[in-house]
C-alpha cells in the first residue's frame, strides 16, 4: 500500500470520491485536473488545460474529459462519469471501480464483466501533452476499447454552449485526428500508440453540470462537443497509449515516452515528499519568465504570494536557481516601489502595499539558503523600494514623520486582507497596518545591514536613523499594555482597531522584530487562545461579533467570510517561527504537532497538497482552491526549520 490511502469500499460512493480532486501541472502553464473518479465537478477541471497566447495568455480547457467503453462478449461497459440535471449521472462508470492509487501518478483499476482494465494518466513536463495508458490486465479474449474525447475550447473562467460557430470538422493525422473548434486556438492532436479506427460521430452533449460551481453561486451547466470515437482492439497484457497534444507526434514513441516520464517522477510516499511534489507544481517557466502560481485551479501568479511562497517552495528543488529565476522575473516588473500583485503583463495591478516588503523577506531567506550576491543583484531594487516608500508612491502609500507607513486611499484594500464586496473592502484597514510596519522595519533594517557591508555610505547616511524611530513609533502606536497585544491597524479617524487578528503574529516572526520576547509571548498567547486551529490561524477571533465561521455560499457571502474568521494555513509559518523564537527547543513538540497534523489532509480535497483555506468553525472543512502555494510553502519551510535547527526527523 502507498502512503496515500483511500477506502476502497467508498470509492464507488460519489459523496466520498467527488470531494477529492487531483491537480498536476507541466511546470510551463498547463495543467490537468479532475476528481479521483474522473468526473469533472468544476468548470476549471479538464484533462488538458493550456495557456493560449493568441487569446491573452490565459488558460483554456481544450480536452475536457474522455469516455472509455469496454466492449466484451457483445456487452458494452462505459467507465466515464458525468453529471446532468437532477443529480442524474450518465454514464456511471464509477460502479466498475476496483482500486485507485496516486503514489507516483493517478492509477485507476476497473473491473468490467470479465475484463480488468488499468488506466494510468500523466501530463508531460514542459510540453502541452496529456497521456493515458490503458492496460488490459485480464481478459478471456481480445476486447475493443472505444475512446471518446469531449472538447470544450474555452477559457477556464467561462462555460461553453452548442453553437454554429464551432468548427466541428476534423483532420486526420497518423493514428488519429486533430481538431480546433475556433480560430485563435491551437490544434488539438488526438492520437493512439496502436493502429486505430476513428468513427466520426460529431455531436453535442447538452447540460453537463459542475456541482462545485453551483455551490459557489456561478453558472454551472455547459455543452461539450465530441467529434466521434476511436476504436482499438487489445488483448490480455496489451497496453494502449492515448495522447492529446498541441503538436503532432509519431505514435510509435508514445509508450516509451510514457514509461520514461513515469520513471522520472518522485513518489509521494511520505508527507514531505507529497509537499515537495506539490511545491513543484506551482513553478511556471514560460516565455523566459519564472513565475509562482498562487493556487490551482483558478489563481494566476500574484506578487505577494510569490514572495511569501518562494522560501518554502525553494526547499523542494533547485534552491538558489529558483530564487534567482523568480526574483529576476519580478524585479523587471518593479514600478515606483511596487510589484504587480495580479493581472497580465499588459494590464498589471499594482495594488499590494506588502508585496515589496515581503520581497526583502524573500531576499533574507535567499541569503540564508546560501545566496552570496543578494545586494549586488537586487540592491538597486531594494533601494528603490525604500526610496519610494519613504517619499511616497501610488495609492497614497507614504512614510510619515514618525517613520511609519501610512495609506488612506478610499475604497481600496491594499493589504493581504483584500476581499471586496460590492465595491467596498470587507476589511479596509486604511492607516497604519501592524504587519506592514513590521515588514517595513524588517526591510529597512536588512537593507541598511546589506548597504553597510557593501560600503554604500549614501544609503546608510540617509536612512540610518530610521530603525530606532520606527521602533519607538511602532510600540507607541500599536502596543496596548492593558490588552497585552498589538492593534491590528490605527488611523486618524478611528484610532486603534484592536480586533484580534493574526497580522500581529507576523510582527513577532520577522528576522528583525521590534518586540521584546515578553511581548512576543503575549501576542502568541492571544493568538493561540483565539486564532489557532489544527488547519491554521483564524483571521478573526470567534469572540468578535463580525466573526464568520463558515466559508460557503455565493461570492458575496464567501468574500464576507474570507478574512473574518476563515482559517489560513500559511499563517502557521509566522506563528510557528515566532513560537520557536520564544520557546526554543521547548517549543518544538508543539510546532511539530501543528505541522504534522496536515498529514491527515493528504487524501482529502486536493490530493497530496494543502488547500487555500478552511472553515473557522470545527471540523474546519477545506475550502477555496484545492492547492495553494503559500499553504504548501510555509508548512515545508517550517519542516525544514525543524530539521535543520532542531534535528527533527520524520
Quickly give the CATH architecture of the largest domain: Alpha/alpha barrel
Distance between the termini: 19 Å
Q: Could you say what the CATH topology of the largest domain is called?
A: Glycosyltransferase
Number of domains: 2
Number of helices: 17
CATH class of the largest domain: Mainly Alpha
Uncertain regions: pLDDT < 50 for 5+ in a row? none
How can the largest sheet be summarized?
A: 9 strands, mixed
Number of separate strands: 39
**What is the general shape?**
elongated
Proportion of residues in helical segments: 25-40%
Computed structural class? alpha+beta
* Percentage of residues in DSSP E strands: 25-35%
Averaging pLDDT over every residue, what do you get? 96
Tell me the radius of gyration.
Answer: 26 Å
Brief sketch in words of this structure:
The chain is α+β, with helices and mostly antiparallel strands. Helix content is 30%, strand content 28%. The protein has 17 helices and 39 strands.
Amino acid at each position: 500500500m502507498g502512503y496515500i490511502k483511500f477506502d476502497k469500499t467508498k470509492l464507488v460512493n460519489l459523496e466520498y470520491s467527488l470531494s477529492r480532486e487531483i491537480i498536476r501541472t507541466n511546470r510551463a502553464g498547463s495543467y490537468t485536473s479532475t476528481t479521483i473518479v474522473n468526473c469533472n465537478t468544476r468548470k476549471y477541471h479538464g484533462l488538458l488545460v493550456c495557456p493560449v497566447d493568441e487569446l491573452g495568455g490565459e488558460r483554456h480547457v481544450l480536452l475536457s474529459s474522455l469516455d472509455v467503453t469496454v466492449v466484451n462478449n457483445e456487452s458494452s461497459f462505459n467507465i466515464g462519469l458525468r453529471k446532468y440535471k437532477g443529480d442524474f449521472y450518465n454514464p456511471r462508470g464509477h460502479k466498475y471501480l476496483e482500486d485507485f492509487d496516486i503514489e507516483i501518478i493517478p492509477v485507476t483499476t476497473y473491473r468490467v464483466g470479465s475484463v480488468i482494465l488499468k488506466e494510468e494518466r500523466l501530463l508531460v513536463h514542459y510540453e502541452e501533452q496529456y497521456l493515458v495508458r490503458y492496460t488490459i490486465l485480464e481478459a478471456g479474449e481480445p476486447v475493443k476499447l472505444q475512446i471518446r474525447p469531449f472538447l470544450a475550447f474555452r477559457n477556464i473562467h467561462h462555460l461553453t454552449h452548442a453553437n454554429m460557430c464551432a468548427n466541428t470538422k476534423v483532420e486526420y493525422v497518423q493514428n488519429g485526428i486533430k481538431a480546433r473548434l475556433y480560430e485563435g486556438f491551437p490544434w488539438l492532436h488526438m492520437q493512439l500508440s496502436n493502429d486505430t479506427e476513428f468513427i466520426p460521430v460529431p455531436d453535442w452533449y447538452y447540460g453537463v453540470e459542475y456541482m462545485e460551481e453551483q455551490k459557489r453561486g456561478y453558472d454551472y451547466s455547459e455543452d461539450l462537443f465530441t467529434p466521434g470515437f476511436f476504436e482499438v482492439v487489445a488483448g490480455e497484457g496489451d497496453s494502449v497509449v492515448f495522447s492529446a497534444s498541441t503538436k503532432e507526434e509519431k505514435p510509435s514513441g508514445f509508450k516509451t515516452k510514457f514509461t520514461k516520464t513515469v520513471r522520472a517522477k518522485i513518489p509521494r510516499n511520505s508527507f514531505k515528499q507529497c509537499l515537495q511534489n506539490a511545491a513543484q507544481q506551482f513553478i511556471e517557466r514560460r516565455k523566459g519568465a519564472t513565475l509562482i502560481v498562487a493556487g490551482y485551479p483558478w489563481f494566476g501568479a500574484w506578487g505577494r504570494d510569490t514572495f511569501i511562497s518562494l522560501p518554502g517552495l525553494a526547499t523542494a528543488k533547485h534552491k538558489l536557481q529558483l530564487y534567482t529565476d523568480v526574483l529576476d522575473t519580478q524585479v523587471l516588473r518593479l514600478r515606483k516601489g511596487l510589484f504587480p500583485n495580479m493581472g497580465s503583463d499588459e494590464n498589471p495591478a499594482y495594488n499590494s502595499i506588502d508585496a515589496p516588503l515581503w520581497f526583502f523577506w524573500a531576499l533574507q531567506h535567499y541569503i540564508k539558503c546560501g545566496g552570496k550576491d543578494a545586494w549586488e543583484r537586487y540592491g538597486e531594487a531594494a533601494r528603490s523600494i525604500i526610496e519610494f516608500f519613504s517619499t511616497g508612491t501610488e495609492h497614497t502609500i507614504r512614510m510619515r514623520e514618525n517613520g511609519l507607513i501610512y495609506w488612506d486611499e478610499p475604497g481600496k484594500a491594499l493589504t493581504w486582507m483584500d476581499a471586496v464586496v460590492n465595491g467596498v473592502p470587507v476589511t479596509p484597514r486604511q492607516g497604519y497596518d501592524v504587519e506592514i510596519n513590521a515588514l517595513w522595519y524588517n526591510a529597512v533594517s536588512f537593507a541598511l545591514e546589506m548597504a553597510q557591508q557593501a560600503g554604500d555610505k549614501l544609503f546608510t547616511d540617509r536612512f540610518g536613523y530610521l530603525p530606532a524611530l520606527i521602533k519607538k513609533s511602532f510600540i507607541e502606536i500599536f502596543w496596548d499594555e492593558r490588552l497585552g497585544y498589538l492593534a491590528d491597524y490605527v488611523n486618524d479617524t478611528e484610532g486603534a482597531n484592536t480586533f484580534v487578528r493574526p497580522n500581529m503574529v507576523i510582527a513577532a516572526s520577522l528576522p528583525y522584530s521590534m518586540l521584546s520576547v515578553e511581548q512576543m509571548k503575549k501576542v502568541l498567547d492571544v493568538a493561540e487562545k483565539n486564532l489557532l486551529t489544527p488547519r491554521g490561524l483564524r483571521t478573526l477571533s470567534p469572540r468578535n461579533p463580525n466573526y464568520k465561521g463558515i466559508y460557503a455560499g455565493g461570492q458575496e457571502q464567501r468574500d464576507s467570510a474570507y478574512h473574518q474568521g476563515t482559517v489560513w494555513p500559511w499563517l502557521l509559518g509566522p506563528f510557528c517561527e515566532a513560537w520557536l523564537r520564544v520557546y526554543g527547543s521547548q517549543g518544538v513538540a508543539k510546532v511539530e504537532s501543528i505541522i504534522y497534523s496536515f498529514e491527515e489532509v493528504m487524501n482529502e480535497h486536493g490530493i497530496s497538497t494543502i488547500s487555500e483555506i478552511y472553515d473557522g468553525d470545527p471540523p474546519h472543512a477545506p475550502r477555496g482552491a484545492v492547492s495553494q502555494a503559500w499553504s504548501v510553502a510555509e508548512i515545508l519551510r517550517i519542516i525544514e526549520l525543524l530539521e535543520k535547527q532542531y534535528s527533527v526527523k520524520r
